[in-house]
Design a protein that fits this description.
Elements: H1 12-18, H2 28-49, E1 59-63, E2 69-71, H3 72-86, E3 91-96, E4 103-104, E5 114-122, E6 133-141, H4 151-155, E7 164-170, E8 174-179, E9 184-190, E10 195-200, E11 211-213, H5 224-233, E12 242-243, H6 249-259, E13 262-265, E14 276-277, H7 278-291, E15 295-297, E16 314-315, E17 317-320, H8 322-331
Parallel strand pairs: 3-5, 11-12, 11-13
Antiparallel strand pairs: 1-2, 3-4, 5-6, 6-7, 7-8, 8-9, 9-10, 13-17, 14-16, 15-17
The structure holds 6-O-phosphono-alpha-D-fructofuranose.
6-O-phosphono-alpha-D-fructofuranose binds at residues 122-123, 125, 215, 247-249, 252, 275.
Length: 334
């Protein structure tokens, strides 16, 4: 029956199932796991959009493993994702930025073949001023060559091993982007039906952009090569770049993915290894960037090739359009 030219409504679960043959790791189980993530982010979106009406703003008074003040919404988001993933039956280990250690889901037993890593609410310092924030997730497979009891060794896999990666940005609209290694696809949450609906398939990052994204307040502590790139970007020769910096990785990355340009969080005196976390921030964003035709590096090597040494390991992160990332690397040789 003709739909009269109206765009078909495709949800995330349908998208995975319909493209099952294309997605190297998709299966009915995989789309079931992804539906746990979409459920959690719909709940988080509802809480984020009612912040201020209900008492979810402000800090809890606690400090997390990162040494950061925990916002009430951080805790709500973290527990929401744990509750939605814990009973999927196929998740064996869950890693969160908010948890000191991984949580093993013993009830899943050997059926728990996936590891889900996430930053439940990235950019949380922006919550109280209504700036876009986001959830970032990365999915690994439980390794057959490592005993399940060696939980940390199970989790410390390089980004190239990711089965899938994605984020949800809670902004003027709620948008999910994900990849399973067969392109980047975007869905917008339609509040009238409570479903993420396909809005863009096979998203590609422009080869060259017009923005660079960095917190220039740390200028004096950046490596000289980064300072050199920034001076170039401001020069006549560069052709008129603009600085755009939200201070929320998900928002800054979402813009870079769609418009091109480069996002930089280099080493600083405060964070000599960079601030962003390898396992559940840099790796998922790097998979998305590369799947969209962009690049992601720590200045020395591809982010996805870095062998993690610790659960909450941090890394320098330069990611975006090939043209700009290569320009940064032409100035900065760590
Ligand atoms: P700065 C948010 O706290 C975050 O982890 C990322 O979302 C963001 O890119 C970065 O830190 C911002 O850090 O030092 O510029 O405030």
């Amino acid at each position: 029956m003709s739909t009269g030219g109206a765009r078909p409504i495709v949800t995330v679960q349908q998208h995975i199932l319909e493209h099952q043959r294309q997605f190297p790791h998709a299966s009915g189980e995989f789309s079931w796991l992804l539906s746990g993530i979409t459920l959690a982010t719909k709940i988080i979106a509802a809480q984020v959009q009612r912040a201020g009406i209900v008492d979810v703003l402000g800090a809890t008074g606690e400090v997390n493993v990162q040494g950061e003040v925990v916002q009430k919404l951080d805790t709500l988001a973290n527990e929401t994702i744990h509750r939605c993933l814990g009973y999927r039956g196929n998740v064996g280990i869950v890693v969160s930025e908010e948890d000191d250690e991984p949580r093993v889901i013993h009830e899943a037993g050997d059926k728990g073949k996936y590891i889900v890593l996430f930053d439940p609410l990235d950019g949380s310092s922006n919550i109280d001023v209504n700036v876009s924030i986001g959830t970032i997730f990365s999915i690994l497979r439980v390794r057959d060559d490592v005993p399940r009891s060696e939980v940390i060794n199970q989790v410390l896999q390089p980004g190239l091993e990711q089965l899938a990666a994605g984020y949800v940005v809670y902004g003027s609209s709620v948008v999910m982007a994900y990849t399973t290694g067969a392109g980047v696809h975007m869905f917008t949450l339609d509040p009238s039906i409570g479903a993420f609906v396909l809005t863009r398939e096979y998203v590609t990052m422009p080869l060259k952009g017009k923005t660079y994204s960095i917190n220039e307040a740390y200028w004096h502590t950046f490596p000289k090569g980064i300072q050199g790139f920034l001076e170039w970007a401001k020069s006549e020769e560069a052709g008129g770049y603009s600085l755009r910096y939200v201070g929320s990785l998900v928002a800054d990355f979402h813009r870079t993915l769609l418009k091109g340009g480069v996002f930089l969080y280099p080493p600083t005196r405060k964070d000599p290894k960079g601030k962003l976390r390898l396992l559940y921030e840099a790796n998922p964003m790097a998979m998305l960037a590369e799947q969209a035709g962009g690049m992601a590096t720590d200045g020395t090597r591809r982010i996805l090739e870095k062998p993690p040494q610790a659960l909450h390991e941090r890394t320098p992160l330069i990611l975006g359009s090939r043209s700009e990332v290569e320009k940064v690397l032409s100035f900065w040789k760590p």
